[in-house]
Amino acid sequence: MSEHLVEVSGLTVEFPVADSFVRAVDGLDFTLEAGQALGIVGESGSGKSTVAFGLLGLHRGTGARVRGSVRVAGVDVVDADDTELRRVRGGLAAMVFQDPLSALDPYHPVGDQIAEVYRVHRKVTRRAARARAVEVLDRVGIPDAARRARSRPHEFSGGMRQRALIAMALACEPRLLIADEPTTALDVTVQAQILDLLHELRAETGAGLLLVTHDLGVVAGSVDQVLVMKDGRAVERGPVAEVLGTPRETYTRELLAAVPRVDAPVAVHVHPGGGSTAEDDGVLLEAVDLRREFGRRGATVAAVDGVSLTVRAGETLGVVGESGSGKTTLGRMLVRLLDPTGGQLRYRGRDIGTLGEKALRPLRHELQMVFQDPASSLNPRRSIGESIADPLRAAGELDDRRIRARVGELLERVGLDPDWYHRYPHEFSGGQRQRVGIARALAPEPRLIVCDEPVSALDVTTQAQVVELLGQLQRDLGLSLVFIAHDLAVVRQVSDRVAVMRSGAVVEHGTADEVYDSPQHPYTKGLLSAVPVLDPTEAAARRDARRAVVPG
Amino acid sequence: MSGTAGLLAGETAQVSPAAGASQVWRRLRSRRAALAGAIVLAALVVIALTAPLLTAIEGQDPTTYHDTLVNSASGGVPIGSFGGVSADHWLGVEPGTGRDVFARLVYGAQISLLVAVGSTVVQVLIGVVVGLTAGLGNRFLDQLLSSTTDVMLALPSLVFAIALMAVVPSGFPRPVLLMLVIGLLGWGGTARVVRAQTLTLKELNYVAAARLGGSSRWRIARRELLPSIAAPVITYAALLLPTNVVSEAGLSFLGVGVKPPTSSWGQMLSSATTWFRADPAYVLLPALMLFATTLAFTVVGDAVRTALDPRAASRIKVGTKGADVSDARAATGPQAATVAAPVRRAGANADNRGEA
Amino acid sequence: MTGYLTRRFLGMVAVLFALTAVIYAVFYVAPGDPAQLACGLKCSPVQVHQLRGQLGLDEPVYLQYAHFLKGLFAGRDFSAGAGVLHCDAPCLGISYRTNEQVTDMILNRLPVTASLALGAMVIWLLLGIGSGLLSVLRRGRLTERLLTSLTLAGTAVPVFIIGLLLLLLFCAYLQWLPFPTYVGLSQDPQQWFWGLLLPWTSLALLESAKYARLTRSSMLETLAEDHIRTFRAYGVSERRLVTRHALRGALAPVIALSALDLGTMFGSAVLTETLFGLPGLGKLIVSSVNILDLPVVVGVTLVTGFSVVLANAVADVLYAAADRRVVLT
């Protein structure tokens, strides 16, 4: 039988918005053969997740309009009745969701949840289903699976939960695995482990894989074929090496060009005080053994545990670390949004770590911050002009005309229309909102801006533009930047010097080239080897290297 | 467009220019039930304001006894059908005393609305001040005010109100006393809602940005927090209004509300309990008025909540599923908040550990 | 968990103390002259002065409060004219009017209010949760719209209106039921039931509207969560989604609220008791207020306050136990 594992033709999905419909997927065709892996790549709003959901008929009953045909393992998903559809779901094709914490039922033990799914598709006893759950949990690398099967999801770490979800997907030996951004919520080292696991399982079970992701690096090492989507349509499709190596379409090329690379710095930095100089007068901000503890009633946890670093005038210091490394806490302390619980924070030679709010106020404007989430960093009820003007007004600038003019200037500076003073945040895209956030940080004419994950919520092309803007501003205004991110590639792209953080401490620091090209600390080495690369051959080589290091 | 609905829509306009005041108003207007409720409320306000005029047109007043219109042999049942309806007494007369029912109902609307609105204002004012101060203050202040709020919520408000109404010297003007007692006993929920909202908002990055911009605590409260707190407060106040109408009627029903000869629906219902067999009309009329008032307040409040709910906008994206959720959420009003609050507190503990 | 329970318990005790202080302050210190109230309007100033001495009201306030607290834990004596009235351990004072111990008066009334509250709770939980679930299962159909409108209207009706209308219908018009009278459960269970049927129904009808709405909203919220989507994507049937994965989370707030409401009911059943003439706590406070019997008023206020505080604590613990996601620290 020459039937495809997945055959999608003319798939169109429309969601009801107000009185009309918005088309999320527009006439999509593709096929996937048994045992093959297809990556669907696209930026947000490209419709890639909608396609994944469509394969399991999950749009049924949501008010969405689905047209075209979707056949999975021989079943017509669009026309199948509910019983038939339930047989496909989990039995023939199983989904691994993005956020493993919310995707599991918090009230039941993980093993029971897997057993329940197993019993939906197989007529077996409860005991047999439990045994099967332990078996698959063990298979995905959960240590002491028999005991851990009785734990509830919140007792697992993020990576463990994602493994548990994969175990659930494996339970009924489906012919197709659908993974919807399976590693987006995870740290880079865990991401590598999960991707390796998926790869292994595929080789072992012969199941097909449909991997949906925004990250080109993730598909490079994990799939055979790639489908690039934009605005609900397929832009380009082909073998992964071809699409990533010699893309035919302009959009694919743009996408690839925007991906920051950890192996080669993109921007060349010109900065007055930085580089090889050891002059002390270049130092703007200095942290000495800075600490911050959280918690009360005795049980305290040090989020930042004795960090010492310096920021010189005009340079960019990159701070890189995984979640829980304390990098955000550090960033907030540097601008005194959080009070240090120990150590010193010296700004231009003066200890500002212990200054009270009043004494600090004259200095406030010199230390600004750009936040991660553009949605929560702007007040939705105030126009962007008012938000940007706020520091000016707070400083006592009363002349409304001068304020308007200054805000207009700032908007122009960050690449927005100066006439947009009266617009509200919801009228802007994520990237534009981040530009507004940058304009607001610039308004009080600061000397130093701490950027906390400024681009991690943005699509890759937007990311590149915002990074470019920050570099431009730094050159023009002689700003010092502290650039905090989890993404090693982005940090390398912008930083003169880099500090690597882990568990509240800096494990390694040096110039960007030193840290990236000849890492000294094993943690840094591990991080760097886990970063996905765009070259499929290189990706495969790295996977083998990782497997050699960590057997089993 | 007059009355409460208009007032609420006006406030909405200040609250959320972002969502579009006209959009909120359109959402309000598109609900037929809400429109009907608003009309009923407007009519009630007009009736309450023009009570002297209306009774003058009828040619009666709410306090004069008409012994001739009740059958003293049967203990005072009104003579005539439907409780003594006649051209002079449009809705009949009160059993026992023969006072004009229409006049008493119309003046009862005055008391009902006055006390309800007044006590809601007291509740909201105290609740916002306490909640905001607790949310923004240091740990000690927060602990103090939150405990005070807990004690307030633990007071058996009806019992306490009955007792308070009884011990306050009788010289004190009763409607004002009712407003104060209901208001002072009922601000706990608002305070909790405002505190929770403040704590959430305080953690948002735009508040941090305002601090970095050199704004003082007071300036942040005024410019960044208050506008965002207004929407939930209005929603909550809209749910408090019908509760307060019922509270006033209840206290008057128990004989500790307004004192005769001032008329109140609750009081009429109370005396109706002894007459319900002989004169059912006398039960039904005040019951109907009271029911119409609370129902209108509830329906309008429900619509205001839906219209102000930010999720109402996002339902578009998720299709029908989301619509149900935003419709049903918080549907349970003031009391649900008191349950949700401790739970939320426990949740906040879990989230407060910072990045580590 | 034990740490949480201990802290919750200590917090509860603290609130209870604050409650006694507030209530004591409000009634004995703030407004007027309790002795004057106790004596009645026709007393001469000399009589009032005498009475003040007898009641210990001439002592400093903190001493009075201390005596009051001592009475609560160890009992106390009151001088009454020539003799001495002893008031046993949980002493809430002695009635100005009947010289009965307030604690006894309250204990006598408690079974009535408890019967009313518990019976009503059974009805409102069945009715409320049932119709809430029904409206979720019949989403988008006429049943749902009907139930939604009905419950919205239901939350708006005061209990004395429903009660009066029920009386009018069943006692006056149809004459199916006699006017409700309270007969103790131990005396005659059947009469107890028939006597309480109307009061239960009036109370429960309104409460069930609230519960229906809460059940519905809570259920819909849970059904919209991601983990429900997971199991739907694994072929689990809709009915099983509701019963196994949504119900537990959705009912947690319902259970918590019902514990709270049961506690509140001891105070808020006043209206129902007054309307139907049931000799419960509410009736007691209303009649005591009318004859200005201050110790009884304070006693009932305290007892109802205690029940609310207790219910609050129980609700918290129940919720925490039902919802594993709430971290107990």
From TrEMBL, chain C:
Membrane topology: Multi-pass membrane protein
Subcellular location: Cell membrane
Family annotation (InterPro entries): BPD_transp_1_N (IPR045621), MetI-like (IPR000515), MetI-like_sf (IPR035906)
Annotated keywords: Cell membrane, Membrane, Transmembrane, Transmembrane helix, Transport
Pfam families: BPD_transp_1, BPD_transp_1_N
Transmembrane segments: 9-30, 114-137, 149-176, 191-209, 249-271, 291-315
Keyword set includes Signal: no
Coiled coil: none
Membership in a protein family: Belongs to the binding-protein-dependent transport system permease family.
Name of the protein: ABC transporter permease
Source species taxonomy: Bacteria, Bacillati, Actinomycetota, Actinomycetes, Kitasatosporales
